[in-house]
Amino acid sequence: MNQESFYRYLMTQRNPNSADEIEQFANNAFLDSAFPKQSTDFEEISQYLEENADYLPSMTIFDAAWRRYLDAMN
Question: Which of 10, 28, 39, 61 lies 20 to 30 A from 18 at CA?
Answer without folding.
Answer: 39
